[in-house]
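Is this the right way to post structure tokens for a design question? Let me know if I should format differently. Anyway, here goes:
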């Protein structure tokens, strides 16, 4: 009989984070039977209204373990006594004051607490024997280098322009789009590409390869996942010093850390444009074993325990 795992995560509009979907696919490839329970309501009463459906799902699916993603989802997943719960902490659930208390509380009742980076692990002021660091990893089969002109022609982009990737929706305040847009305007002659909404991995791979560099000006991050994807295609990156950025880009040529000062960001953009070459980022991703298939094997070992 297959090992069964129930994933509990956010799913407004039935939209599931791509890195959670990828983890599910890799686990299924390892012979694990995986089902979702989506938290698609908000607020205390919204969560409470989902409990009867959740209890019924746990009873009928009968998983070996429940794996929740995000601290609040983990707290919800613990609202049953039948199965052990593993919780993956992603970033804001550890870093934001309004949320982290719930995450801390969840850690004392879950079987394992998983952090997607050492940075998040170290951000927790206490340590327990059941704390693990397991990144989501990325699909190295989907994110791979493609010749820039080919990528641009496939997307219908101008092959002669300079494109900067801003890897998030500009409406998210923690991503600090204002600083990125000001820096790009000051440098001039650069088109800023914002990615939001739902895109396939193939589309994302083309966009990453078609751009000249990525600019990440976030106030806080857990990983960030988009950095791993950029490195996997050898895209130059300029990042603020958040999450696991400094550790991840160590030894990667063409990746720079910037401050929140406009002139510093502009200076770093000019350095990248002057270098005008791709990075050795994919090699770094392989060194760090951030292939999602490797991380799925680590999860399988955890489930077996």
């Amino acid at each position: 009989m297959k090992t069964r795992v129930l994933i509990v995560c956010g799913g407004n509009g039935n939209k599931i984070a791509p890195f959670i979907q990828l983890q599910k696919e890799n686990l299924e490839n390892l012979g694990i039977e995986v089902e979702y329970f989506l938290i698609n309501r908000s607020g205390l009463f919204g969560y409470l209204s989902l409990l009867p459906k959740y209890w019924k799902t746990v009873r009928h699916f009968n998983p070996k373990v429940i794996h929740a993603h995000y601290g609040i989802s983990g707290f919800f997943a613990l609202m049953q006594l039948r199965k052990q719960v593993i919780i993956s902490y992603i970033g804001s659930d550890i870093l934001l004051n309004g949320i982290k208390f719930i995450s801390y509380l969840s850690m004392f009742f879950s079987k394992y607490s998983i952090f997607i980076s050492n940075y998040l692990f170290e951000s927790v002021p206490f340590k327990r024997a059941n704390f693990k660091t397991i990144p989501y990893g990325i699909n190295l089969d989907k994110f791979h280098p493609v010749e820039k002109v080919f990528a641009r022609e496939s997307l219908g982009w101008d092959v002669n322009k300079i494109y900067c990737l801003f890897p998030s929706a500009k409406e998210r305040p923690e991503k600090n789009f204002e600083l990125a847009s000001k820096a790009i305007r000051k440098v001039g002659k650069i088109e800023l590409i914002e990615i939001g909404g739902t895109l396939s991995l193939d589309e994302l791979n083309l966009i990453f390869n078609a751009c000249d560099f990525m600019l990440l000006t976030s106030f806080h991050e857990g990983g960030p996942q988009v950095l791993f994807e950029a490195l996997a295609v050898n895209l130059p990156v300029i990042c603020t010093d958040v999450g696991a950025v400094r550790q991840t880009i160590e030894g990667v040529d063409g990746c720079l850390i910037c401050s929140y000062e406009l002139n510093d960001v502009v200076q770093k953009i000019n350095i990248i444009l002057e270098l005008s070459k791709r990075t050795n980022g994919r090699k770094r991703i392989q060194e760090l074993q951030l292939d999602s298939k490797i991380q799925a094997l680590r999860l399988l070992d955890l489930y077996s325990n």
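Format looks fine. Someone answered above. Worth noting: The first strand starts at residue 4 and ends at 10. Residues 148-287 form a domain with the Rossmann fold fold (CATH 3.40.50.2000).
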